[in-house]
Write a structure and sequence with these properties.
Structural class of chain A: mainly beta
Radius of gyration of chain A: 13 Å
Helix content of chain A: under 10%
Order of helices and strands of chain A: EEEEEEEEEEE
Number of helices of chain A: 0
Largest sheet of chain A: 6 strands, mixed
Oligomer: heterodimer
Distance between the termini of chain B: 36 Å
Helix content of chain B: under 10%
Strand content of chain B: over 45%
Largest sheet of chain B: 7 strands, mixed
Distance between the termini of chain A: 41 Å
Number of strands of chain B: 11
Structural class of chain B: mainly beta
Order of helices and strands of chain B: EEEEEEEEEEE
Number of strands of chain A: 11
Shape of chain B: globular
Chain lengths: 112, 113
Amino acid sequence: AQRVTQPEKLLSVFKGAPVELKCNYSYSGSPELFWYVQYSRQRLQLLLRHISRESIKGFTADLNKGETSFHLKKPFAQEEDSAMYYCALSGRSGGGADGLTFGKGTHLIIQP
Amino acid sequence: NAGVMQNPRHLVRRRGQEARLRCSPMKGHSHVYWYRQLPEEGLKFMVYLQKENIIDESGMPKERFSAEFPKEGPSILRIQQVVRGDSAAYFCASSGVSNQPQHFGDGTRLSIL
């Protein structure tokens, strides 16, 4: 069975400090991993996906198949990064045509 | 493009009533997904539909829940004889071709009195 684990329910860091939101997964094949973000009073939106290997809003995430992890990182946190972050997994390329498996989410709070 | 549209945003029902949740996918999208989020939990996949077809309903409860995506009109998630445990946020997502990411709606918050 596929599973996504986000061990931190809440993460609080100061503005300008580095941020790392942890995500570990369990899947027997080659998954595609995503990070979704939900800002206050907004809908869930895609932040980045591992196959894109791009940086969005200063965030990056590298898929580590050995450690089955897909941690989200940003070197210098900004107050506007405060949000709920969800890690998600799909068994299909792109994540379409498949139900995503989500972690429980991490509430990131950036203190001024 | 208004994105994925869900209505109503909030729905209150008494135990035993029926709840109907609607989802209009993004323009040009033909794949629709429903998820449920209980308090303090992540989103849990329920069902995946294409026009007039249920493709994967492995996450749907066996009783009282049904979903459809007709040729015309929005996708409907229907919950019959609601119980307190059905109180949750229900999210709809859509995608275009099968290798594109899913885009989410604002969700419907269902409260059962």
